[in-house]
Amino acid sequence: MAPAGSASHAEGGVGPDDEEPTGRKGKKLLTPAQRKKRRWRRIRRTIYAGVGVFVVLPAIAFVVTYFMVDVPTPEEVAAQQGKVVNYYYAGGEKMAEEAPPEGRRVILQPEDIPDTVKHAAYAAEDATFETNSGFDVTGILRAVWNQATGGTGGGSTISQQYVKVATDNDEYSYTRKWTELVKSFKMNNEQSKAEIITAYLNTIYFGRGAYGIETAAQSYYGKSAKDLNASEAALLAGMIQQPGRVEDEQVREQRWSYVMDQMVANKWLSKQERNAAKPPQLIPDEKARPEALTGPDAFIKNRVMAELAAKGYSQEKIQTGGYKIYTTIDKRAQKAAKESVNEVMKDQPKELRKALVAVDPKSGGVRAYYGGPNEPGVDEMDWGNVQRNPGSSFKPFDFTALLQQGEKGLYSTYDGSSPRQFGTVTVGNSSGVECNPCTVREAMERSINTVFYDMVTNDVGPRAVAEAAQAAGIPEKHGEKPTMGSLDGNISIGGGQTQVTPTDMAGAYATFAADGIQRDTHFVAKLETSDGEVLFDETTPAAKKGEQAFDSDPEKNRQISRNVTESMIDVLPGSDLSCPGDHSCAGKTGTHQYDQGDVESDENSQAWMVGYSPQISASAWVGTGRGEPIRDAAGSPIYGSGLPGSIWEEFMNRYLEPLDPEEFSDLSADEIFGPAQAPVTDDSSATPEEPEQPSSTQESTSQKPSSTPSPPPRSSAPPSHGRPSEPSSPAEPTESEDDGGGWLGGGADDPDTANGNGNGGGPPGG
């Protein structure tokens, strides 16, 4: 009998040699052909799924969305725009309200808008407008990428921008982009390009409270849109992206230049016309918007809008929403600031420019802001927001950096002789004033340049000074321009590329006034929607908490700041400046020398006074704005204790007089850094030193009379509250504060201010 296996084989069964190959786990092994067939089957399924997900479903969604959405007409959009925006003082009183007056908006027809205006808009916003389908694929991909990577922005076409304005939806999201894209496509299917660009130009916001090209043309130039030339149209189109910064001349010129270049690139303007063109001038703001904040107060509105824009609230959004803006400005303080400046400067040369900024140390809020008179055709610059060399008013940051090292302090001594050589640089003090040995306290009072230059170049280093200044609140940059551009010895006396604004200085000194608690300087206290929804609030305890500026240890941080304050207490009586009544004050004057290469020049180009009480910090500046020599009505050089000092003192008197006095925190003897104070010889037995008489050019009428007594010698223990003693004996000019006077040579050029020295310059009393 044949074996079973043989019979099976004979009957056509599968023998051991003919079985399909299997794996170790009994799974069938596929042939190469079978594997290839399976791969293609999977690929086809993936493609079908991909087509369904990325093509069919979006197409269906697109069609559904297309029939569900509508594009508002310009008339419908206009009805939603231009609501009243209310501005309030810190105390809740209304400051002003702004809205485009009824009837100013004009809806133009396509034939009313010249090609020049349309081309400018294309150049600024959408060069392919005439040929695209309402959306730009590359722009969409860019927006998707930005969303995926945490960025913002995209490449919206003019049609998409109209939809965004019409729907008042500017959030960065896929949903908004999708709806915007569909509406834009629908708009391009149902309307001509001429109708779309007309709708866009009739509704877009241009700044100055102007919606629509006709209103904008009237607000910018006092003329109709049909009369605009290429240069005027380019500026209007350029400001669409930054309407809240229309009063910033630098921004205007940058945007205008960009659009003009784009018009040339797209052959809408010849190179000859471009080369011959100049940025157009705007009509005065009060003529453009009679209801707007004007004069010095207009600068407050500009600073408010810039601050809100930085927080993500555009001027257009604010105007459209009719928001309520609660500013930090104190009505009484603002009145005091304007009156103080006007009183001191009323009979002074007209070419002098001035600024006064006051900051609340307990919140960081700007209480008063005078950037200039804002007189059309005379002085329209906001000097409270322009960088200038601070001169010796920067020296407290030198001392702060020294105190942070923890080894030296108020009574550490330096060689304050003049002149002194530091490598290739020669540094001198004003009018030959000198002391050796010289304590830091005395050097601060008399503003001995050689002491602070020595302190920075040999003890702490320029970088430590920059870091101390930034910790106090000096920003690293002002726009795109650094505040401390070069880290060299010039920073010790506020020269070279050390340039700050009056706002910066008032805010940084407020940190000293607050015992080392740094709070960001700001103009907006609270923002609400028209129906009262609070969008943000800077008046809460959490918002006003602030940060330790100079050391993470709260007590050491306070001690550093309090030592700095102590160093500046004697500066005021030494410069014949004071606080009202029983109020406590400290501060520092500063002068930046002008010499055009003459290191011994008596001319100055900038003059400052920055000082504070526990309740307010104020910065006053006087200059020409062009880095030219500054002289008062009597023809004498102006120093920090002169006109700026008088402005500061007048403001402090007006502001502090009605308030209950507050003293600086206690400073005990063991809280003073460095060596203890050396014993002072009894005044009655001391042989008086023969005073050095200043030259005639230093006996400036911009300084206060020297008949006011000077303070008596200090006791062996420092005052516990920092209240300076009242003067009791005649002060010699060479003994008083000099504002970083003197000179510095050997490569300290300052091209930004036409000052060859780059020093703090200024004679006694500076």
UniProtKB/TrEMBL annotation:
Residues 1-37, 675-766 are annotated as: Disordered. This is Transglycosylase domain-containing protein. Residues 684-707, 717-733 have a biased composition (Low complexity). Residues 356-619 form the Penicillin-binding protein transpeptidase domain. Keywords: Carboxypeptidase, Glycosyltransferase, Hydrolase, Membrane, Multifunctional enzyme, Protease, Transferase, Transmembrane, Transmembrane helix. It catalyses: [GlcNAc-(1->4)-Mur2Ac(oyl-L-Ala-gamma-D-Glu-L-Lys-D-Ala-D-Ala)](n)-di-trans,octa-cis-undecaprenyl diphosphate + beta-D-GlcNAc-(1->4)-Mur2Ac(oyl-L-Ala-gamma-D-Glu-L-Lys-D-Ala-D-Ala)-di-trans,octa-cis-undecaprenyl diphosphate = [GlcNAc-(1->4)-Mur2Ac(oyl-L-Ala-gamma-D-Glu-L-Lys-D-Ala-D-Ala)](n+1)-di-trans,octa-cis-undecaprenyl diphosphate + di-trans,octa-cis-undecaprenyl diphosphate + H(+); Preferential cleavage: (Ac)2-L-Lys-D-Ala-|-D-Ala. Also transpeptidation of peptidyl-alanyl moieties that are N-acyl substituents of D-alanine. Residues 757-766 have a biased composition (Gly residues).
